[in-house]
Task: structure prediction
Amino acid sequence: MNAPTIALETLDITDTDRYLTRGYPWAEWDLLRREAPVYWYERPHHEPFWAITKHEDVRFISRHPELFSNTQLLRMTDSESVQIGQRGRVRAANRFGGSPDDPPDFVFMDPPEHRTHRGLVSRHFTPRVMKRLEDHFGAMAENYVSRFADVVANDLAEKGSQSAVDLVHTLSAKLPVAAICEMAGVPEEDWDQIFHWTETLVGAADPEYQAPGESREQTLRRSGDEWTRYNEALVERRQREGLGPDLLSSLLSGDVDGRSLSPREISAYFTLLLAAGNETTRNSITGGVKALLDHPEELERLVADPSLVPLAVEEILRWTSIVIQFQRTAVEDVELRGKTIRQGDSVVMWYPSANRDEDVFPDPYRFDIGRDPNDHFAFGGYGEHFCLGANLARWEMRAILHALIPVLPRLELAGEPELVPRSLHVGGIKRMLVRARAV
Ligand code: HEM
Result:
């Protein structure tokens, strides 16, 4: 059967059902890059925006925060989510004080304010700090992978050809939660609960996370309230027991322009770090395992030469491009590739498209674990808001991949991955069943 013809006027890159059933709209992004890399995208159910699909333009926009602001909309989403977000801000203001128009966290700020706020925690994420944690992450990864391998082996012994173990919950989610919780000084007995909250807050549109009779907004509220109460108790305990060298203590002791952070800011920053760190890394690990199982020749290369792990991680990041898009608002009129982006217009940067840009990546649809250079934008376009946790995510992924090398050749998929529905921001994998090959 011939693939349906795609036309600029009708192509769809925002339909979340499409992402769920058919995956990322690669062919649509290819067409946009080729014929309309700066494209005014106007469709029902969404506010119009400029779709930016080329690597060079994503870089330009990311590096010019004075032209493209973060203070308004941050990501392209449906109008229901925008309204839920606005009501959430009113509730937060009623609870903690301040105004619903205050930026929820530092992602919504522009320089110089952004840099001051980000600076409160950035020293916890430098390459030097990560390097110091390398052995520790390595040991944790070995431990998680060894437990995962036991579960897989026992499941095979018990169920034979019906064996199916969910990689996401048995392995991928473990290290990302553990690493960020450890850095923040969260007690280990609470890590599973923290993971559950982030999963629910990100996947609230999915009936699986909703209590019976609950709407998406009610689910968000319930888990948001539970998380806030937990957070307040943790802050209170840390203040009582004394501050330490951890992330949360940095937020509590930090000052911006001579004032301490408000309780609302502390709660929001902490939530940001946990949410941003958990979902993304977990999905990149799961997507990386899938990519290697789908490309046995690349897996063989990795097994034969484990020194390829750092390059393989970069290729996995490019290949999976877990973060789909971020949005900016033009501060003034800007000319880009002959189009005039008007002051106040939204621009949306599609990172997976930039990561398949044939002007930057030779043979972009080839998964090549030795690709070098690999100037991907999985963590953003190297601008003001470049991923704060990029070094952390890289070290976690390297540690897990390294520990998985002896296990992967004996593993196979036990079905198609189940994707997180209604997600246009992170291409989430909810469950991915794997099993040991019978020998
Ligand atoms: C593979 C894993 C990850 C991916 C693919 C990823 C991707 C991204 C992307 C695309 C951005 C937006 C960049 C921009 O606007 O220019 C971002 C921002 C951010 N990420 Fe990550 N991220 C990952 C892991 C993490 C981790 C582990 C943390 C831990 C704290 C984290 C914290 C953040 C924060 C706080 C921001 C906002 C930075 C700012 O606005 O200044 N991320 N990330």
Remarks:
- The longest helix spans residues 127-159.
- The chain has a mean pLDDT of 92.
- DSSP finds 16 helices and 14 strands in the chain.
